[in-house]
Amino acid sequence: TKIQSCLGSPLSAELQERKRRCCMILFVGLLFTRLWLVSILYAAWWLLDWDTPHKGGRRNHFIRKSIVWRYMRDYFPVTLVKTADLDPRKNYLVGFHPHGVLVAGAFLNFCTEATGFSKLFPGLTSHLMMLTLWFRVPFFRDYLMSGGLIASDKESASSVLRKPGGGNILVIVVGGAQEALDARPGAFTLLLKNRKGFVRLAIEHGVSLIPAFSFGENELFDQVDNPKGSWLRNVQHRLQKVMGISLPLFHARGVFQYSFGLIPYRRPIFTVVGKPIHVEKKQNPSQEEVNQLHQTYIGELCKLFEEHKAKYNVPKEKHLEFI
Description:
The protein is of the alpha/beta class.
């Protein structure tokens, strides 16, 4: 089952594309300088290290604790909220909602220590899944893995969930890049109705499912209207099929003015991590068993949203909508 998840990017598709190009230019450019040996040696290392993003990655605690992430946290600000203690002797699968445009909540909470993940969940290590194509870029792949990002495929997910001794949290942005096309202030539409690969994965490995909802994630950018069936939405869907990432036409504020720009609005994000849903292990679950657990997960996600929405200024008439 393909893992239908993951980030169009932790910072946004546009910023990731710029970083990717810079890394490619650096890699190729060094070949034509006195430092050509750097690229040759890195290429050799790259081949030897090719499978690392699919086998749990390679985090760097110095980068995860960088002061840069604390400044980014304080800009919005971003807060990680725990609702239940988690057993560090077990592995868990967290479904993160919504994707939003920036995916700031997922990145800052699970790929850095800016919001205190290790203090809130002692003994647990977080792994956030991201589109595989980004790990094929020299240098950039190492930067991604340093934060705990891993490739978004079944092999990568299984390598984390089957680790003996427990202590691992696999975070999947279930709605994926496609959900970003519906990310706008006041929207609570989740692409989840037919996303069941992560549920099957949890059953096959016998790990508890945990819903997580990031209040404020959709408030960071305005987006050009792109209703379903419009020419813009059709073009965006076609580009997504070709490129693997969505391209929402978003805008927010500028550096010195607040009327227009690509810098996100300074609006608070509260990522609430729910309670574990116990899952019985079964190697080949039936579709009925997957559907049943999927409905249980949706129910727990709705409960989490309803219990906390008033606290984070969501109008009482607002409810989650699933497509």
